[in-house]
Design goal:
Length: about 270
């Protein structure tokens, strides 16, 4: 049991990989662990795309914002919310072809994410490294085209996978008292917030400033603290409004917004 906790608490994102293939035996083993994750109604409304081919990874490279691990890792895994398979079975069984709405997408997204974390933990137990990529969701419309996903299948989360070729320290997390609320939500005071983010502000800025490219970007952007790094450089309002529109467009194209009118999605984006 102690090994389980040690394993989980030692997680770190790996962005550099050895030129060593991951065997099908190992890959199938860790993906099997993924299928044991909790699933709504035990429907398992997700699919996992394994990408090894270098030409295919080159197509995905710009969609993942040119993150080098897309090309350097021997494997990319893309976890998709998938009700296509279920709907085919429903049709064969003379059952109503449901699951073409936003709630269904959310169920598939949650199940795909749960499966992905099981795979990640199993992979790390096998000595592999992973790095989750939020770009899977941000670029899900274009990624859907490259992966030739049919209707009712949407990529939601993915990560690079391979044998680590770097030693990195585990990043600090917020203190437990920042996360836990007992019995009901207890809102934060300004003093609470200052104490919660005190260490993160120092360590986070130190990490960003240690990277030459990021340091230059920070200096050119007139950014003075970690909160401004998040909101002026990494996750701007403009970028998230764009990604919101792109994701909604993808859901519409993939058949998950059949119960929502176009004007409703416009209202969501304006808020």
């Amino acid at each position: 049991m102690e090994n389980i906790y040690e394993h989980i608490l030692s997680h770190k994102s790996i962005r550099k990989y050895k030129e060593k293939e991951v065997s099908d035996e190992i890959l199938n083993k860790v993906i099997t662990a993924g299928t044991r994750a909790s699933s709504s109604g035990n429907m398992q409304p997700y699919s996992i795309i394994i990408t090894r081919d270098k030409k295919q990874r080159k197509k995905l490279f710009p969609l993942h914002f040119e993150q080098t691990m897309v090309l350097e890792a021997p494997v990319l895994l893309t976890f998709c919310a998938d009700f296509n398979r279920m709907r085919i079975w429903l049709k064969q069984s003379d059952a109503p072809e449901n699951f073409d709405n936003f709630m269904s997408f959310l169920i598939g997204m949650i199940d795909a994410t749960l499966a992905s974390q099981n795979v990640a933990l199993a992979a790390e137990a096998e000595g592999l490294g992973i790095c989750y990529m939020g770009t899977t969701l941000a670029s899900n419309g274009e990624i859907s085209k490259v992966l030739e996903l049919p209707e009712h299948v949407v990529p939601v989360v993915g990560f690079s996978l391979g044998y680590p070729d770097e030693e990195v320290a585990a990043r600090d997390r917020l203190p437990l008292e920042a996360i836990i609320h007992r019995e009901k939500y207890q809102n934060y005071t300004e003093e609470n917030i200052r104490e919660i983010y005190k260490k993160k502000e120092v360590d986070g800025m130190k990490r960003y400033l240690s990277h030459p490219d990021l340091r230059k970007l920070i200096e050119e952007s007139d950014v003075s603290n970690l909160a401004q790094v998040y909101t002026k450089i990494k996750y701007t309002k403009e970028s998230h409004l764009k990604y919101s529109a792109d994701v909604l467009e993808c859901l519409k194209n993939q058949g998950f917004l059949n119960n929502i009118k176009s004007e409703d999605t416009t209202i969501i984006l304006k808020q």
